[in-house]
Amino acid sequence: xxxxxxxxxxxxxxxxxxxxxxxxxxxxxxxxxxxxxxxxxxxxxxxxxxxxxxxxxxxxxxxxxxxxxxxxxxxxxxxxxxxxxxxxxxxxxxxxxxxxxxxxxxxxxxxxxxxxxxxxxxxxxxxxxxxxxxxxxxxxxxxxxxxxxxxxxxxxxxxxxxxxxxxxxxxxxxxxxxxxxxxxxxxxxxxxxxxxxxxxxxxxxxxxxxxxxxxxxxxxxxxxxxxx
Amino acid sequence: xxxxxxxxxxxxxxxxxxxxxxxxxxxxxxxxxxxxxxxxxxxxxxxxxxxxxxxxxxxxxxxxxxxxxxxxxxxxxxxxxxxxxxxxxxxxxxxxxxxxxxxxxxxxxxxxxxxxxxxxxxxxxxxxxxxxxxxxxxxxxxxxxxxxxxxxxxxxxxxxxxxxxxxxxxxxxxxxxxxxxxxxxxxxxxxxxxxxxxxxxxxxxxxxxxxxxxxxxxxxxxxxxxxxxxxxxxxxxxxxxxxxxxxxxxxxxxxxxxxxxxxxxxxxxxxxxxxxxxxxxxxxxxxxxxxxxxxxx
Lengths: 228, 297
Ligand SMILES: Nc1ncnc2c1ncn2[C@@H]1O[C@H](COP(=O)(O)OP(=O)(O)OP(=O)(O)O)[C@@H](O)[C@H]1O
Ligand SMILES: [Mg+2]
Hints:
By secondary structure, chain A is α/β, with parallel strands linked by helices.
């Protein structure tokens, strides 16, 4: 469960990115975060995995106040949250397999477990036959699937994605969406910031709309609602 | 930490050392120069303190006699000491002579001592030389228990001066060495900075997936420590080989009156150990600078 109570975020340069956000996401939900460019979607996402701290207000992840978590404990908080970006953030000199395994090695998982689990998630994202390919040898859609596999490999309760389809053509975008839907169906909470009207309007999930740092709309089976 | 993880960190550190060959070389050289100076100093310091302790054993014992002792008492005491089998010679220095010596030493300030002739506060002295220099200390202890003996001292004058000199040398070397150590640490911090820069994507991902702060830091500390160890190897070798040659020429442990060198063992162990530890310390210190500045965790 993710809760925000009266959350404000003012960046060091004085930009007010969020201005009093209240919302709650339950375990197992699928949520789109939409809004015009610069409205604060990425800020909202970054607060969830504690890349940024709120200037004011309370953020609870599974009941834990992230502002109170000591710096050295933040990594343990993050192990429960998989993060996916528009630009995949894969390591270019590692194969698909190594990129995913890296996330388990970084949390000091035992070697035996790593091999089995990495193969399992690569199968989940449909890349078990491209395991030894470098990112440069993969299409954008495939790269994004590797990054989703990496986000999933440590079995997080949440997957948070900031415009995961932003660099993809419609066909690949849909593949990613089906994948996220399947992950969600297995019980993982998915939060996804997006500009993709077609996807939001077709999938009909919960939609949180942010404008100028404020939640202006929060609907189940919502619509995108903007003409970009 | 798991041994597997430690291997991984060490591998990463080695990779980085190879990746920044030239910076690594510069940093290792800086450490080497620092430690060479330090190593030479260390050998000197060990030897000076050894010589000082040897000198302590060789020089005369000065017995200050009680003011209440009569001439007969003194003669008896002197005879008793002369008959001791461990004693080579005994000299009597009356307090008048002591005052004269003091005047010679003080020169200009002699006037402070004027008038003391009539009421000389100095004690009479017996100067005792042991047959075997090694026994000076035990002999002194024995003599201190005799009647009319106020107190006993030996060796301080010469050895103190020797230790003063070594203290002075030490301060100069320490200041100079500290400057070099700072320079070496700075060069190490620069190589580590390059490594952090080269690995910034990996670091970003590690943080994202929840690697602990120590997991991220370790390879950089190991890299710094390895630069320190690599930087220690050459100076330790040079210093020990050089010292071995010096001993070969001058001879160790031979009882010249003053000049007596320590043997290779266990000196080489101390010098190697202390130098390598200092190298690691400089290396870790250098990494720490960059880790705090550029890793920000
Ligand atoms: N690190 C930062 N430092 C300062 N200002 C920032 C920072 N990140 C974002 N901002 C500012 O905060 C506001 C919200 O930015 P944010 O990235 O959250 O918007 P967004 O909704 O994700 O936009 P987009 O749809 O273009 O990705 C913007 O005005 C932006 O310029
Ligand atoms: Mg954004």
